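Journal club prep — side note

Before the paper discussion, L.F. wants everyone to see what a predicted structure for a comparable chain looks like in C-alpha cell form. Sequence:
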Amino acid sequence: MSEYHLTVLLRETVDALNVKENGTYVDCTGGGGGHSAEILSRLGRGGRLIVLDRDPDAVAVLKERFAGDERVTVVHSEFSALRQVLDSLGVDLVDGVVADLGVSSHQLDDPARGFSYRYDAPLDMRMDPGSGITAAQLIETLDEREITRILYQYGEERYARSIARAIVRAREKKSIETTFELSEIVKSAVPAAVRRAGQPARKTFQALRIALNHELDTLEESINTMFDCLAVSGRIAIITFHSLEDKIAKHCITEFCRGCDCDPAAPVCTCGKKPRARTVFRSVTPGEEELENNSRARSARLRAAEKIRMSVFDD
C-alpha cells in the first residue's frame, strides 16, 4: 500500500504545518496517504485529520489504510469544494492544510489511466475516471487553434502549432485512441534534434492532462479557500510541479502576506490594511537524497505560509 504513491517532500511539508497535538488538519490531495500518515504520527488522540481526493482509486486506498483510526475522515471530493466539505462535517476552521498538486505515482504507473506516454494504453487522463470526457475525446473535438492554445499555455510547448496541425491531420484518417498513437504524432511534428534530446511528448501530455482536468481553472480560488479555512496561527503548505502551478501558488501567498497597498510615495498609510500571513520560508525543493530515490520529485517545490490574522483590517 505504501507503494501506491511516492510521497514528495514528506518531512519538509509536515514540518511546515507545525502540527499541534490536538489540532485539525486537512490533506487536500490524499493520494496514497503519505503526508496524512506523517501528520497522524504527530497528532494526539484529540487531533483530527480530514483527507480529500478526487480519484476514487485513491479514496479506496486511503479508507483501507486508515480504517479504524477514529481521527481520520476520508472524503471523495475535489479540493475546490473544501469549504463545503468542512461545512458538511461541522468544521469551521482548521489548523493546517496541505495540497500536493502533482499526479500520483499510481496514476502515472497504471497503464489503464492513460496518463503516461511510457505505456500503450487508452488515451484517458481523467483524475476521476467516472466523470467527464477522456483526453481522446478532447482532441477529437477541439479545432487546431484551440489545441495549439492548450499546448502552448499549459505545456509551454514551443512546437504547439505544428503538433496541433499534426493531430488534426492524423484524426482525419483515424481517431487518436491510445497514448502511443499520440506520442508518435508528436514525434512526427517536432525537429529531429528535439526527438534525440528526449521524449518530446512530455509537454503535450502535461498540457492535455491540465486542460482535461481543469487543474488550473480554479487553482487560485481554491488556494484562497484553503487559506480562508485556516484559524489564526494555522498554516498552508502547497507542493507544485511545474511553473504554471508555482506561479499561482506564489502569487496567492504573496497576496496573503501583503498589507498596505497605498502609493509607495505616500508619507503615511491611509488604507489601514495589514498582512494576513507570514511566509514560513520562501520555498523548498527536494534534496539530493530524495532525488536519488524518486526522480519524479525533481520539479517539486514547496511553499508555505502561516495565518497571522483573519482580516487585513484586524489589529
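L.F.'s comment for the group: Residues 10-101+218-307 form a domain with the Rossmann fold fold (CATH 3.40.50.150). Keep this in mind when we get to the figures.
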